[in-house]
Amino acid sequence: MRRSRVPDKRIPMDEHGRGPVEAYKDPNFMESQDARTIRILAEYLEPARRFQQFNVSDTIVFFGSARILPREEAQRQLEAVRAAGADPEAAQSLLDMSRYYEECRELASRITQWSKGLGGKPRRFVVCTGGGPGIMEAANRGASEAKGINIGLSISIEQEEQNNPYVTRELSFEFHYFFMRKFWFVYLAKAIVIFPGGFGTLDEFFELMTLKQTRRVKKPIPIVLYGSQYWDRVLNLQAHGRRGHDQPRGHQSLPPLGFGRRRVRLHHPRAGREGALAPGRELVTRHRYSRESGNPVQTRHARACPVHPRLPSTRPRGSPGQARR
Q: Among 147, 245, 139, which Cα is nearest to 201's?
């Protein structure tokens, strides 16, 4: 929504016309430049309050293209194009890319089923997306089909629609400021999975890597580039690192990984079978590139699960039950 730069000099009156209204009830003030800091603060406090209400501790974030279709819809479009005698190249490409929709849907479902089995009051590893169509819809859909809650962080722009129908209604958000939306993507994230996408997806990826390289984000956040067949053609991170554009530490965190043809196994941390992790431990996979050959090297080790910092309390100070105006 466009903010008016011309102040309205009329004094707003209450519904009875007897006097001025409180400042926070005055839309002319709340939508003005002077109240911008209040609007920014609202996009921090209101989501924090809802995450506390639903005991959301941390998330698994999915990024990817908003234009990737489900396989059935892509197949219908291809058949319609062929029946019309038009060039099927674009429709065939959509069908080829639809595999990522289905794989994202399955991965989100598996993660949700696994996280629900962890038990405990705080909800951990909740699927979180930008709330739009395409890959975002696939992740929310997979989590919904696994009967788990999921999060949609939508943004108010003309090109995008409202949150997709698979987002949990109580955890559906609409942001005006991009940076506040990005804050919530990163603040709760325990891992980030990046599917094939366009400029928006690349923007999220490179901003995350900049935060990690500059250590503005100190907690470990594994970042998975899903689909090496796509990412190896779009990005050449090995060449980027070999030419010295990144510090070694930053370069080590840039492995282009594809799990589209691999079985994803999620282990319950309390399972007693052989090879399972002990309670309170998690398996960490680290990737780096050999300086000699440029090939990726992978190591694994178990460590104590980091506890996510508690969200700031949004309850006003004072006696219980009394809200401060």
A: 139
Strands 223-225, 59-63: parallel, antiparallel or unpaired by DSSP? unpaired
> For residue 14, what pLDDT is reported?
58
Q: Provide mean pLDDT across the span 166-180.
A: 96
Between CA 267 and CA 286 the distance in angstroms is: 18
Instruction: Report which of residues 5 and 68 the model is more confident about.
Output: 68
Q: Dmax over Cα atoms in the chain, in whole Å? A: 79
Residue 6 domain flag: no
Range of the domain at 145: 54-263
Tell me the pTM: 0.74
**Amino acid, res. 122:** P
**Mean pLDDT, the chain, whole residue set:** 79
111 Cβ partners below 8 Å, 6+ apart? 60, 125, 127, 143, 266
In the chain, which ranges are continuous DSSP H helix? 27-30, 36-53, 71-83, 89-116, 135-145, 178-187, 199-213, 228-234, 237-242, 248-252
